[in-house]
Amino acid sequence: MPSDPHTAAGLVAREVHTTTREDLTTRTVVARRTYPTDPSDLWDAITNPERLPRWFLPISGELHEGGRYQLEGNAGGTVERCDEPRFFAVTWEFAEQVSWLRVTLTPTGEGSGDGSGEGTGPGTTLEIAHEAPADPDFWTQYGPGAAGVGWDLGLMGLGLHLDTGAAVDPAQAQAWPTTPDGVAFIRDAATSWADAAVADGDDPGDAHQAAERTIAFYTVPPDA
């Protein structure tokens, strides 16, 4: 896990946007982080079914445009667009709810690792944009951090994998959010998501109360 949770949380840029899709009001959370590798390697890390489980989840299905995919114990959906190694878009279908995920890779001049410092040389910025139908009750309760913090943890795991090439231990990753370092990381991330929601027009008090509920959701041990 990262040596400095505050620095690690700060590696992600976060935005929230109120959007529309076919006359449906949606909310989009955007997470952006730069890694010290080239687009081809980063693309392989996030799409190769043999490599993806090293930092995220096992995946099955037809991983091409028009195909169906399924993440083990999580979302599945349809690959709507795939432009290797720059962009893909998929539906994100989970618990009878459909949302939309867009992933963009952009080459940069430099990247950063797991939080220990800035890297130089070739880098690639990964942007995840997760758009979901607006649910006022759920948004009031948890805000953008409900989805956003989950992506923060995934992006952190990806950084750890890219730094070493090794797999992240699933048991350690699952337990880490309840540790002091994990709580610090999630608090920083959830607070940043609340700030992004305020920038999009949410009430500051409501946004930060929702962030506190998100922090509790991610950091309370399952058997507590």
CATH-defined topology: Alpha-D-Glucose-1,6-Bisphosphate, Chain A, domain 4
Describe the sheet with the most strands: 8 strands, antiparallel
- Overall structural domain count: 1
Question: Superfamily at the CATH H level?
Answer: START domain
| C-alpha Rg (nearest Å) | 17 Å
Q: What distance separates the N and C termini? A: 23 Å
Strand content: 25-35%
Compact overview of the structure:
The chain has helices at residues 5-10, 39-47, 136-142, 145-164, 170-175, 180-199, 204-219; strands at 13-21, 24-35, 59-61, 68-71, 76-83, 87-94, 97-108, 123-133.
What attributes does this structure have?
8-stranded antiparallel β-sheet; Alpha-D-Glucose-1,6-Bisphosphate, Chain A, domain 4; alpha+beta; 38% helix; globular; 224 residues; 8 strands
Could you characterize the architecture of this molecule?
With 224 residues, the protein is α+β, with helices and mostly antiparallel strands. It has one domain: START domain (Alpha-D-Glucose-1,6-Bisphosphate, Chain A, domain 4, 2-Layer Sandwich), CATH 3.30.530. It is built from 7 helices and 8 strands. It has an 8-stranded antiparallel beta sheet. Strand 1 and strand 2 (24-35) form a beta hairpin. Helix 3 (136-142) packs across helix 7. The longest helix has 20 residues, at 145-164. Mean pLDDT is 92; it is low at 111-118.
